[in-house]
Amino acid sequence: MVRLRLVLGHIWENISIVNIRDGHWKDFQITNPLSSSYSTVEMVRNSFLLTQDQSGRPGKKTLIIESTNSSDPLKAGEVISFIIGDTRQGSGGYLVAPALSTIQLLVEEKLNNASDWERAYTDSLYPTVETGGVTLKRFKVIADSTIKRGNNVNIKVQALQNKDSFTSSSHLIKNFTGTIEFSSDDPNAYLPQPYTYTLQDKGVRDFTIRYSTPGIHTLVVNEVGNTSRNGTSNPTLIKRRNEWYSDYNAYWGSMHSHTGIGGHALHTPNYAYEYARDVEGLDFYGLTEHCTTGSNNLYFDWSILKNYGVKYNIPNEFIAFSGYEWTSTGEGHRNVILKNAENWDAVPCPYDAKGTYQITKIDRLLENITGTDSIFIPHHSDKTMATMNWSSYKDHPNQPLVEMYSWHGNSEVSGTEISPSGIGVQQYGNGFYVREVLAAGYKFGFTSDSDNHFGQAGSNTKANGVRYFGKMGITGVYAKGYNRNQIWKALQERRTFGTTGGRLLGFFAINKHFVGDEFTTDQLPHIKSILISNSPFVSVEVYRNGEEQVYYAQPNVTKFEFDWIDTNVTSGEKYSYYVKGIDENGDRIWISPIWVNYTTNSISQGMPSFGVEKSLNL
After folding, report:
1. pTM score, whole prediction
2. CA distances (Å), 244 to each of 86, 514, 525, 551, 613, in order?
3. Highest-confidence range of 239-248, 447-456, 546-555, by mean pLDDT?
């Protein structure tokens, strides 16, 4: 008997990835021809049976066609057509999550129950199906955040389905062919001519503009003939010379996302790097596949994964790293980024996987990798699914950062803050939140990231069937140059900030020391900060030693600058300070701490002075 099997998946390095998780598509519903996820088969005769196969890894689904008459087998030259959604009978089509973008259709055959499934052709010869959003609602306009006067600003314009939201996905309209036009708040800006999208653009297109005046500017894009379909860029700061922040540019990136090689996600590494660069316009990116999924990971292969950073890294254009995720139920989850991953023959992992060696405890892990160009970033520390052990090292050079936010929610503090994923959270007071570990003396800079499982870092997408949803976060770094060494230096030195996905911008210094610094002084801590967003800030806060809120303002402006001197400090004590802003849309920015060792005895013991605050008009 001949059996045929249709497999939906992806191809990676000549390996078929077929284990697509439950919830990423609707179930096959063979018995109901009017279902929106109805699947059927069209054939030249009627002696075949269509069934489902859910054997193997959880969530794996395939369609199987087999002969119902052993004396009437499939003949050479006969055609069987798989139909995903039978629109002739009223189906709206088989529901595949719009976020998936690309799915490959593989047909395998099995001669009898004892044989293995085999494909008659090489994987690359099988067809693919692309999916995306349907109805254009807005444009996402991504712009460089900081630039010198006179330089071009890089712009990326996406055609998207939904409004940006903490509660809904926003998918790319890959077949958009409308015309867009540009306007700016700088009347002398050099803007592109109107542009008509083609199908080859797949919903996203790059442009350049040039602003003529220093200050903060935005670009507006709208569809010609329908101005209700529009989008405004994130703010671009055209820097003046000799400002206290002028030495640094802000760059955006992601160091926490997955594809099918992680064992329970979608797409391929090539897709992930190209999506980060070409669709989301990230400045740097590192893929972090699971080396373990709670046991041995049969898909993980470090000998291949380690080379993607070299493959995609282009100085001054796109900075790429390779990495992985170190996952332990008893020690916590950590994203791992390696500066020169191609030189690592094997990496530490809690379980055995191809190209790894086993280390199960975080202290031993940090001791093992001390002195290497590697960064381990704890994430979703507040979740009960993997109890976080921060390690006994409070200031380890290979663990300088912590992920403050991802789509799982906010690990800063419990209570009213964001925690949408539905995964159980730890009780505040037991040392699992970022404010708590700062109060305990740990030294962490901040990142935010996505934990996206479609290979789409930075995108605001979720899977079908996922009840809870939060926007994907994004990490910013302050660097003096745009190459792998400078981005790496910024990460090591904690010159970082994180947001809940919006490209909010901020700068922060104390006594002329910048984000991430530690210094000793006999001067009172004098804080200067600037926060910039498209939406007014409803609150701006400064936290000292993690848990003390020592400054609070409700500025209700889009550009906010404040100076504040902390007079309530004690000689011989050490203090950390970080800045947090929340805008009207609920987007947050967290700027990494600065650590101050205060030494003089000539101090005021009074209450903090809240200094001078003002809106910023550059």
Report:
1. 0.89
2. 63, 9, 16, 21, 17
3. 546-555
